[in-house]
Amino acid sequence: MSNQKIKVAISHGDVNGISYEVILKAFSDPQMLEICTPVIYGSSKVATYHRKALNLPAVNLNSISAGKEAHSHRINIVNCIDDNIRVELGKPTEASGQAAFQALERAVEEVVKGDMDVLVTAPINKKSIQSSSFNFPGHTEYLASSVGGTPLMLMVGDWLRVGVVTGHIPVHEISKNITKELIVEKLRILNDTLKVDFVIRKPRIAVLGLNPHAGDDGLLGSEEKEIIQPALAEAREMGIMAFGPFPADGFFATENMRKFDAVLAMYHDQGLTPFKALSFSTGVNFTAGLPIVRTSPDHGTAYEIAGQNVADEQSFLSSVYMAIDIFRNRKMNEEVGTNPLKSSGADSYGSDE
Fold first, then answer.
1. pTM of the model
2. Is 339 exposed, middle or buried (0-12, 13-18, 19+ CB in 10 A)?
3. By the 8 A CB rule, do 223 and 175 touch?
4. Residue 285, φ and ψ in degrees, nearest 5
5. Would you write out the chain's pLDDT as a tens digit for each of its 353 residues?
């Protein structure tokens, strides 16, 4: 598997943001074509517009009608949106949202068919992409609906991995969505993905509390005692090495976090705020728990710098590298005949020792 060139499907995201800038910069290095076959789902006309606006070196894009036609030593592009779309740098528009969805839908379709190996999604605007066809809070929920599986948003950096129990929901709804069953399910998915996708034989997972100071023994909230601690006990009975709950405010400020292979936060900002502060330039958003491999940069559309040629492509590059690594790790796991991602409950952990 080590020498196989992986076919990487790239949905172009919002055309008014920095997506094309980071994509074009990433593949300006000829060595990238030695490790993967990229296929951009979007528009060669829009790509050319961005290249000229950014004054980037000329890029020879190989236009194809489907991913299966991709040339293994070229930057390929599937034209799947209206070429007459108006690019308005720095502005979310209905047209840019529709173009983002059309590219995403086509890329997912070809990954599911097996014509492409992995999916890397460039950033979207979660509001402008909304339509009768896309009624989801973000990529994560759309992908779960499209390809199946139970998703876990997992932010991955050079040395830090942070997952979340609840994802894109309003803050006032977090507490009522935190249940013992959900925490156990997210721990199971996280444990499985650490074993298979990241080849960690006996992963150790730190779990954060929901309330300040992890509830202060019930003084500041009861969720730790009534929900989180019982969930940890059940997970440990399943063979999952989960520890906590730890107070979230101080956890990331100590060396204690380096004792663990991953952290499970209770909600989006509790986990992503410290992650982005510590690993923003190289961070990757990986959707664990899906039958396909999907990664994305950990930044958004960055409208405020669109067209200025100052966007850093490193997070996008890290997303491509990680998708390739995870795809190979899954194939390797399949070849040895054990894949806990296809199991559930206690059956997933029988071969841990």
1. 0.91
2. middle
3. yes
4. -95, 110
5. 445 799 999 999 999 999 999 999 999 999 999 999 999 999 999 999 999 999 998 889 999 999 999 999 999 999 999 989 999 999 999 999 999 999 999 999 999 999 999 999 999 999 999 999 999 999 999 999 999 999 999 999 989 999 999 988 999 999 999 999 999 999 999 999 999 999 999 999 999 999 988 877 777 778 999 999 999 999 999 999 999 999 999 999 888 888 999 999 999 999 999 999 998 778 999 999 999 999 999 999 999 999 999 999 999 999 999 999 999 999 999 988 755 555 444 333 333 33
